[in-house]
Structure formats: structure tokens, C-alpha cells
Design brief:
Blueprint (H helix, E strand, L loop, with lengths): L4 H21 L1 H27 L4 H32 L1 H23 L3 H37 L2 H10 L1 H11 L6 H37 L5 H11 L5 H17 L4 H25 L8 H36 L4 H7 L7 H6 L20
Length: about 375
């Protein structure tokens, strides 16, 4: 049955609108399931290795793998708390230094614009009132979102443990659902699992490398809290484009407050620019590779879209989700044009095409037309 183009457009628009509604109103459950599944995909080889090499029962292997995840997360939280507590002790001194820098800045403005300090203070107070009103609303939103985030984080280890424990049941489920389809659904899920595992491992390693490089650069500049802001900039790199900009502002502002010369702030930004250059050209291509083969335009649209739906968490998971969507689109013939527009120009190896039915094997070129011999 051939649908009119207008009918197809209406169906597509209705499907997109319904998907957005479901993603928005079901965000808590969807994010919980999605993050748990991504982490379970990453821990799956560890749990499988414990079962095969150590002869551990499945429940014990799943439990040990989940405990490794919990210990790593708690270690990161304790490290961040230790650095923030040191920062909090020195906060009064930083405020005094900021006040002194503010007086110097006011003198500079007065020399340039001939606006006295009183007029500057009045203008600043007016702006501060608006910022305070916005900040109060932002604080309320932050506390409410923090509570929601904690409610989301707590069940994740339980979900990860159950997903690892029931992995064979899910495999059998996909095989039963996919009867008569040449194992297409199971193949797609295996590709999604490999993509998630490679992407998450690569991202964690990139954050660690960038945190070390940033910290070394800030230590060479003799900046305060070099390790804290170095790893903060590395962690914010998880959010593409936006995180890099925010991560470079914090050390630059700290350098302006604690140092006598603005060159330290320029140096802090230079460290971030250099590490970002190394990340874009050497670190990420070698560590993460092309596991999420999404073109830049689709990446930006995905970041903005998932950011509007799910906030900062949506921006973090935007790229792997879009990569999963591309795999699904490549698997369904009717959706292959959408997978093409999302992805980059990638020439899949011959053996990969033979094992992935939705890519299809390369067809040999047609033989040249035969010419009749002249009479």
C-alpha cells in the first residue's frame, strides 16, 4: 500500500510528537533504565570473565561487578568532596581578594570612562538585584533537581545488578521476539551493547587523561586548587562544545582573583585550549574512535534537543542515544535515509557488511555490455 506523501508526513509528525511527549513525561524512568543499561553494558565483560575464568556463580559475578562500579563512584565523590572542603576553608580569603580586585577594577573604569565609583556601585547594585532574583529561582530549581537526581542515582546499582544477573533472559527474549527475522533484533542489540561499552570506557579514560593534563598545566602556573579545577574541566568535557567553554572559565576567574597579573588567566585558558586541541586531534580519536559516528550538525541538534527535554543529564547522554538511534535506523530499510543523514560517511569493512544483514554485502559491479562483432 502506497501512502500519499502528505499522509506519510502526518504519520511521521505524529510519531515524533508522541515520542517527545513520552520522553518528557517519562524522563525519570527512562533515564534510570537508560543509564543503568549503559553501565551494565560496560560491566558485562567483567561479569562474564568472572563467570568463565573464576568459575563464580552468576549472582556473585554480577554483585562483584556492581560493587566495583559503586566503589569507583564513591571514590570520585570523596575526592571531589575533599577538594571542595579545602576550597571552602579558603573562601573568606578569596572573597577579600575579590573585593580588592573589584576596587582596582573600579579605578580602571573611572579612568577610562570618567564614571565615579558611586555611579558604578549604583549600577552594579541594580544588576545584582536582578541577578539575585534569577539566582533564587535557579537555586530552587537546583535543589529540586538535586533531590530528583539523588532519587535517580540510588536505584542505579540495583538495576545494574539485575540487568547483569538476567542477561541471558534478555538474550532469549530478543531471540524469541525476532523469530523469522534472521536474528536482526539481537544483532542490533549486540551492536548497541558494543557501542555503549566502547563509548563509556573511552569517555572515562578521556576524562582521566584530560584531568591529569589540565592539573599539570595549572600546577605549572602555580594556580590554587589546580587538581580540583583540572579534573572539573576534564569532567565537563563530557558535555561537548558547552562543557569545554565552562570548564575553562573557572580556572581563568580563579587566576584573576588570586594572582597579580592577568597573564595567569590567559595562561589558564591557554592550558584548556591546548588540552582541547590534543583531545580533538589525538586523544579522543585514539581512545574513543568512531564508536558514535554522528556528524557535527546532528550532534548539535541532539545536544540541544535532549538538553531541553532532560537538562544537563540529557546533554551528557545525547550522543550515545543518537548513536543508538542511528543503529536502529540502519537496521530498518524504511528508516535508512534517516540513519544516513545522522551519520558520517563511513565505509564499512567487507566482513562487517557480511555479518550485519541490514548493511548488506557489496554488490559486484555489472559486467560491461557485450558488443556484437561487426558484420
Amino acid at each position: 500500500m502506497i501512502h500519499h506523501p502528505l499522509q506519510r508526513y502526518v504519520y511521521l509528525l505524529a510519531a515524533v510528537m508522541l515520542t517527545v511527549v513520552v520522553l518528557y513525561f517519562g524522563r525519570d524512568l527512562i533515564l534510570l533504565s537508560l543509564i543503568s543499561a549503559l553501565l551494565a553494558f560496560m560491566l558485562l565483560p567483567m561479569a562474564r570473565g568472572m563467570e568463565e575464568r573464576m568459575r563464580a556463580p552468576r549472582w556473585l559475578a554480577a554483585l562483584l561487578a556492581t560493587l566495583v562500579l559503586v566503589i569507583a563512584a564513591l571514590g570520585a565523590v570523596f575526592f571531589l568532596g575533599w577538594q571542595l572542603s579545602s576550597f571552602g576553608h579558603d573562601l573568606p580569603a578569596l572573597q577579600a581578594s575579590l573585593a580588592q580586585k573589584g576596587l582596582t577594577f573600579q579605578d580602571w573604569i573611572e579612568q577610562i570612562t570618567h564614571i565615579d565609583r558611586r555611579a558604578q556601585v549604583e549600577w552594579f547594585n541594580d544588576q545584582l538585584a536582578g541577578i539575585a532574583e534569577w539566582g533564587g529561582k535557579a537555586a530552587i530549581d537546583l535543589f529540586s533537581s538535586t533531590g530528583a537526581a539523588l532519587a535517580l542515582v540510588v536505584p542505579i546499582p540495583v538495576f545494574v545488578f539485575l540487568l547483569l544477573l538476567l542477561k541471558d533472559k534478555f538474550r532469549t527474549f530478543f531471540q524469541q521476539v525476532d523469530q523469522g527475522e534472521d536474528g536482526l533484533l539481537l544483532t542490533v542489540m549486540q551492536r548497541i551493547s558494543k557501542l555503549s561499552r566502547k563509548y563509556l570506557r573511552g569517555v572515562f579514560l578521556v576524562v582521566l587523561i584530560l584531568g591529569v593534563l589540565n592539573s599539570i598545566g595549572f600546577l605549572l602556573l602555580d594556580l590554587e586548587y589546580a587538581i580540583l579545577f583540572g579534573f572539573l574541566a576534564g569532567f565537563l568535557n563530557v558535555v561537548p562544545y558547552i562543557g569545554v567553554l565552562i570548564g575553562s572559565l573557572f580556572p581563568a576567574l580563579l587566576a584573576l582573583v588570586t594572582k597579580d597579573s592577568a597573564l595567569y588567566a590567559v595562561g589558564a585558558i591557554g592550558v584548556c585550549v591546548l588540552t582541547q586541541f590534543l583531545d580533538n586531534n589525538f586523544i579522543t580519536p585514539k581512545v574513543v574512535g568512531s564508536s558514535v559516528s554522528i556528524n557535527p550538525l546532528a550532534s548539535i541538534v541532539a545536544l540541544l534537543g535532549f538538553g531541553m527535554l532532560w537538562g544537563v543529564v540529557g546533554m551528557v547522554v545525547a550522543l550515545p542515544l543518537t548513536g543508538m538511534l542511528k543503529i536502529i535506523c540502519d537496521a530498518i530499510p524504511a528508516l535508512q535515509p534517516y540513519g544516513y543523514i545522522l551519520g558520517e560517511e563511513i565505509d564499512y569493512p567487507e566482513e562487517q557488511r557480511l555479518h550485519l544483514p541490514f548493511l548488506g554485502a557489496r554488490k559486484a559491479p555489472p559486467p560491461p555490455p557485450a558488443h556484437d562483432p561487426p558484420a
